[in-house]
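fold-stage: in
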Amino acid sequence: MRLTVESVSTVNREMGTRSVVKLRVEPFVRFTLNQGHTVNNRVWINFKELRARLKFEAVLRHYKVSINRKGNQHTGVCPLPNHEGSGTAPSFSANLERGIFQCFSCGAKGNVLEFAALMEGADVKDGDALRKVAVSLKERFFPNEPVSRKGPQAAAKSALPQAPAVITNPPLDFELKGLEANHPSLSDRGFTPETVSHFGLGFCSRGLLKGWLVIPLHDPEARLVGYAGAVVDDGGIAEENPRYRFPEKRERNGKVIEFRRDLLLYNAHRIEKPADAVIVTDDFPSVWWLHQHGFRNVVATMDDGCSGEQARLIVSLVAPGGRVWLLPQGGEAGGRFAP
């Protein structure tokens, strides 16, 4: 499925001026490569090393070239299939030790790998074609060597001490207790007790989130994976004191626990799939306000952008032919959020 822009409009409601973008969910055809042409699992080829190891004389014999050797030099009729010029004059010369060749008639020249590519009718300037020829030569002349699918950087990394395993957005094994659901930071903004209870909101008076409004965060399977903190007084927002605070990276039992909001959609676990329409916003209060006013299928990206994984999650919530409404904040942040 893919999202297609259907319309753009502007509304001015309790949440302020917002640009509303209406999207349509449509089928999307994914093109895949034919078997044998891989992208992420390619056989590693070191061209320089392969050229150094190949015996030019053996390669010439492989292509049925009769060797006329004098010292380290071979001369003869040009064997290249695209040769232009005399077909009988000995215009072709190859230095068998250095692994280079030149035809003084058609002008072709290069190294042993490029010679093989020309014999196969490949374009030496085409990296994929040249690589295919290199793989073929390696399999023919060094058939018993193990095939590596990693580059030298990966091999070097394997020799280094292994870093701790990183676990992203794992479920928490605890819940925050004693949150103040009736705190003025919520009631003074007009949020009802039902809305506060529905989203599990509350003011925290102890621990790491002391002094913050606490927001439980869940993954698509409804598992609690973290808590966000929201400032109580908007007047205190500054670069060193942002509006929202998210879980920081931490180590536990020899593993690194990492929270990534770009892999989640706030409130997505409460959406009954497939929905005919879903509203997507970028901040928490918009979700609460819309829910309180009867719009239940609302999610937030928790940022002024939308990641690829979040887009995939949005599409997964909506039925084919359904609608996605983008309702970002006004101003520069909203401009970055909307397409």
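fold-stage: in (second)
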Amino acid sequence: MTEMTRLQQLLAYYENGAATIRRAIALLAEFPPGGRRGGRGRAPASGGAPAVFDAAVALDAARRRRAGEPEPPAPPRVRGAHSAMIRANRKRTGALLARFARARSPIPTSTLRQADARRIAVLLRWGLIARKGDGYVRTEKPFSVQKVPRGKPTR
């Protein structure tokens, strides 16, 4: 799928949503919620906005069935993008921890790249590195780049 086709699908999806919101605004303008408190939270006894909305949804569904118009498409989804991002982050974290493990003396934060310096707090919190003097050293706690399953261990 080309990038332009994907953008066109997204545009069609959000245009349908915008059209629905415009219809709802028009219905609210035509049938404002009434009640004793200036329209806050109470519909008029004659039905008012909720009944009109129910009727509008039913009419719209009937119109779509008559026209043979398909339901609005769901937004396109990129499969595996989230898990690929997690794997990439774990690889970068593993590489940073390997650098700490190879170092003979504590590594000061000033020598780290900015992206790696941001990871320090998380690594400290999880006990994967420890503060020593003006720098950080690797602890003995194991870290695996592979995803570790959660829950009960299998036998």
